[in-house]
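debug: dumping io for the single-chain case to check the tokenizer round-trip. Nothing else runs in this session.
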Amino acid sequence: MKEQGHPTVYETSITCTCGTVYTTMSTVQNLRIGICSACHPFFTGEQRFIDTAGRVDKFAQRYGSIRARRAAPKPSDVTA
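debug: decoded output
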């Protein structure tokens, strides 16, 4: 087996923004993550609502109406 075929593995600490620290093995040292199982809503049972209405309004202001436009049917498509 070649010596250079495998990456170097380190004992790593993974730190979440909530303050939870995990120790594991990884090819990257000292990882920082934004969300973990200690603070994720799926695992904690909490439900946080994201301001989707604000995003929809921002989209409507930028691109116009948020309603889908349908083309009028062609005369050949209409059956009597």
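debug: round-trip ok. Residues 17 and 23 are 15 Å apart (CA to CA).
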